[in-house]
Amino acid sequence: MMDFIHKSISKEIESALKQAGNVVIITHINPDGDAIGSSLGLYHYLKSAGKAVHVITPNSYPAFLHWLPGNSEILEFNQAYAKAKKLISEADILFHLDFNDPGRMDAMKDHVSKNSKATKILIDHHPKPVAFNDIEISDIRASSTAELVFYLIKALNGKLLTDRTICECLFTGIMTDTGCFSFNSSLPSTYQAVASIMESGIDKDRIYNLVYNNFSEARMKLLGYGLDKKMKVINQYHTAFISLSEEELKKYNFNTGDSEGFVNFPLSIKGIRFSALFLEKKDHVKISFRSHGNFPVNEFSAKHFNGGGHLNAAGGESYHSLDDTIKMFISLLPEYNNWLM
Ligand code: 5GP
Ligand code: MN
After folding, report:
1. How many angstroms is it from 123 CA to the middle of ligand 2?
2. Span from the CA of 17 to the centroid of ligand 1 (angstroms)
3. Model-level pTM?
C-alpha cells in the first residue's frame, strides 16, 4: 500500500477540521473530471462529517460532468462573484484541489491571498507545488487527486467510503484522469482504491456512459474535421498537432469540453511521440500537449507557453495569433530533437 497520507498529516487535518466551522473547496480554472470529481467527493465526505462546506470553481466546466451528485451546489466564481467572495473570506479552511500553482485559481487568486485567513490545505498530484499552503498532500505517484482524496478519507474516517455518493465522484476523477486506466495508472494503489469504491455499489458502466457517451453530433463532426483537415504530422520530429480557429469552432457550435480528448488522437499514430492541440479563443490560444515516453511536456509548456502540468500531459496559453503560435511551436521542435528522436 502506498503511503500517500502520512499519519502526522492526517492528524493535522483532523485537528484543523475539528476547529473549523466553514470549509471551502477550490479547484483550478477550466476544471476537468478529476477537479470536479475530487472536489465533490471531498464535499460529500465533509458534509457527512457535519461541516458547512462549499465548492467554488474559477469558471464553468463541461456538461458531461453536470450529472455528478452535488453539481448544483457548486459556485462559479465568475458567476456568483459576491457570494463566492464572502464564503472565501469567512472560511476557516480552504482546500486547494488538483493544482500546484495559485495562478491556476485565475481571478480567485488575488481574493484568496488578500482576504483569506484560512488554513490552506493542498491535495494534488502535479509536480513541484509552489509554497502557498499550510498543509500539503502532494504526490505525483497518485493517478489523480481523487485517488489522494480517497486515501485521505480512508485515513480520517474510512467507514464513510461505503457512501455511494462519495464513491461516484471519486471514481469519476480517477477514471477521467487516467483516460479509463490507460495512463497514470500503473500502481496497485489505484486499483485498491477502485476495488474499495466498487464495494460501495456504484454503477461503473452508467458513469462511463454519462461521461463518454454523451456528446453532441456537432462535437463528433468537429473531431472528424479536425483529424481529416486540420491535423499536421511532422514525421521528422515524431510530432503531430491539430489547430482549430475561433471561426471553425463556431461553425461546429463549440461548447466547453467538446475538445476533451482530441489531443490524444495523434498519439495513436505509429511513431508519434508528441502531440499538441491549439484552440483559438477570443484573446489567447489555449494549448494542450501530450507525449509518450520521457519527453517532459510540462517543462516544454512552462518554458514556451506560460503553462505546466504533468510529464506526459500539460497545457498552456499563447498571446500571439494562432498562426504565429503554430509557427513558433514548429520552430522549437529542432531544439528538442534529442528528446523526440
Ligand atoms: P488539458 O490539456 O487537459 O487542458 O490539461 C492537461 C494538464 O495540464 C492538466 O494536468 C492541467 O492541470 C495542466 N494544464 C492545462 N492548462 C494549463 C495551464 O494553462 N497552466 C498550467 N500550469 N497547467 C495547465
Ligand atoms: Mn488531476
Report:
1. 10
2. 30
3. 0.97
- How big is the CA angle at 4 (ends 137 and 145), to the nearest 5 degrees? 60
Kindly report the CATH number assigned to the domain that includes residue 229. Answer: 3.10.310.30
Q: Judge whether residue 341 has pLDDT over 90.
A: no
Question: What residues are paired with 22 via a beta bridge?
Answer: 52
Let me know: does 217 contact 252? Beta carbons within 8 Å. no
- In terms of Cα–Cα distance, which of 194, 209, 287, 211 is closest to 243? 287
- In a mutational test of the pocket of ligand 1, which residue from 301, 306, 310, 319 has the highest number of ligand atoms less than 8 Å from its CB? 301
DSSP state of 74: P
Last residue of a domain, one of 190, 212, 234: 212
Answer whether residue 1 shows pLDDT above 70.
no
Range of the domain at 236: 218-340
Report residue 6's pLDDT band, with 50, 70 and 90 as the boundaries.
Answer: very high
Please, where are the H alpha helices in 178-234?
188-199, 204-212, 217-229
Q: Nine-digit cell at 187?
A: 500502481
Q: Cell numbers at residue 98, please? A: 488538483
Residues with Cβ within 8 Å of residue 49, at least 6 apart in sequence: 17, 156, 157, 160
Tell me: do 40 and 156 sit in the same domain: yes
d(CA 211, CA 64): 5
Q: What is the mean pLDDT of the chain?
A: 97
| Predicted local distance difference test score (pLDDT) of residue 325 | 98
